[in-house]
Write a sequence for this structure.
């Protein structure tokens, strides 16, 4: 498959890139600085706002692994930009690496992770912006989207285990040990699995360690 990965030099993006290359997909990275790309793959060196429809629509799947901790509003504006550019181009899927912030924490689906008063303040602004970006995306029918949420505890240096569960109910779910966690490496495997299977078109899934 032809896969374009935005933010391929970030923590999640670089592992998704490596996993896709490992599986022999035709991968192009889309970054602002090509010198930061470790893999020997094709590169489009552009800002997200400079990408054109014809560039994005050339892929089977565009993975949005954009990350920004300072100007968190960019999570909303960049995702809207990508969705607008791919509007009507249903042959290209937009797979968004999101957050756990918009997952529901109650059966009635009235409260989300971002509504938890115990959520650390340093994460709340980012998670809230990403939740708003998802809210705007999930009502669109003109884009072939998928939203991938990691667990609430997203561990950068956790070892690859290949033992995880895919959750499809939009709720914060815990494993048998009462944990909601996933390592970046296992999350990357789950994302590339979804690229290949297309099980969650127009839907969100989350990933938790077994």
């Amino acid at each position: 498959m032809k896969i374009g990965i935005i933010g391929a030099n970030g923590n999640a993006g670089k592992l998704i890139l490596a996993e896709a290359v490992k599986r022999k997909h035709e991968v192009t990275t889309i970054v602002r600085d090509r010198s930061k790309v470790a893999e020997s793959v094709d590169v489009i060196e552009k800002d997200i706002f400079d990408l054109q429809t014809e560039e994005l629509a050339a892929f089977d799947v565009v993975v949005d692994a954009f990350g920004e901790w300072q100007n968190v509003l960019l999570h909303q504006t960049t995702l809207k930009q990508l969705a607008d550019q791919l509007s009507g181009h249903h042959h290209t899927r937009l797979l968004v690496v999101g957050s756990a912030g918009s997952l529901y924490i109650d059966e009635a689906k009235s409260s989300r992770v971002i509504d938890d008063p115990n959520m650390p303040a340093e994460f709340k602004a980012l998670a809230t912006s990403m939740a708003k970006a998802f809210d705007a995306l999930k009502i669109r029918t003109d884009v072939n989207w998928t939203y991938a949420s990691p667990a609430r505890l997203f561990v950068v240096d956790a070892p690859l285990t290949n033992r995880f569960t895919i959750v499809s109910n939009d709720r914060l779910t815990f494993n048998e040990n009462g944990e909601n966690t996933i390592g970046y490496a296992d999350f990357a495997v789950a994302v590339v699995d979804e690229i290949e299977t297309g099980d969650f078109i127009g839907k969100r899934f989350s990933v938790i360690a077994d």
About this structure: Helices lie at 11-22, 53-56, 74-85, 121-138, 184-197. The chain has one domain: 2-209.
